[in-house]
Amino acid sequence: MxxxxxxxxxxxxxxxxxxxxxTFFLMKATPGSPISSEKYKTAEAYAAAMEKYNLDKPxxxxxxxxxxxxxxxDLGESMITEGRTVMYYISTGFPVTARVGSIAFVIAxxxxxALGTAAxxxxxxxxxxxxxxVATIGVSVPSFLIAMLLIIVFGVTLRWxxxxxxxxxxNYIMPCIALSLYPISMISRLTRSSLTExxxxxxxxxxxxxxxxxSQVVLRHAIKNAMLPVITYAxxxxxxxxxxxxxxxxxxxxxxxxxxFVSCVMNRDYPVIMGVTIFLGILIISFNLITDILSAAIDxxxxxx
Length: 305
Prior knowledge:
By secondary structure, the chain is mainly α. Helices cover 74% and strands 0% of the residues. Helix 4 runs parallel beside helix 13 (270-298).
């Protein structure tokens, strides 16, 4: 397993290098500049800003300077807001996004497993149909549209829930529901198909033939073995929720890393865009690795090579 982890770390570093390089050159290919003549009124101030942020140098030289600083752990500072480093934006925005994402993850796991289990084990056809209808809605309707519908119904029309910022606990309800509905749908589908297959296995039939109560067969044997696809999906899903939904955060005016990223893209704040992209890439790669290790720990048949 040690060789496998080391191999994945090396692959992750290469992936981050490719990601950061691609992001850098794509930003440079985009028309416009974060250094505007509106902000720097005189030619001297404009030239000083260009020199400060190395924008007066050739693109390849800018790339070499940035990658050298990145290798030393320096993500740079904002070109738009003076004195604000990239780490400041990450340290202030990510905890907010992480809180919302963690709550959405818990809702998605419990809701998805419950719906999938009910659909797979219920002997009443209508229960299975209702569960799969909810799952279909979650997959078909985008999260930003769900967010808008929740705001219109529960925020504007009924006025039950607040929908701006995160000032109190009730502010978390609609953003978390909007973020979790798609994962709920995916998890419920995975749970349903996996549990249906597991219930047909010989060891389940043997356990039931021995007189083991049905509830114990499901909880001790079936659920555990049916959770492998769910866990495989849960790792990248958790990373995705932790990185936040950019659109949902913007809709609910959540001061997280997603809304910060959108604002920086609009202002062409190159260092913040690069830093946030690399940070999110590290999160996704790390959670994928953790998912692989957990899958091998749960199912001994999986060998990490």
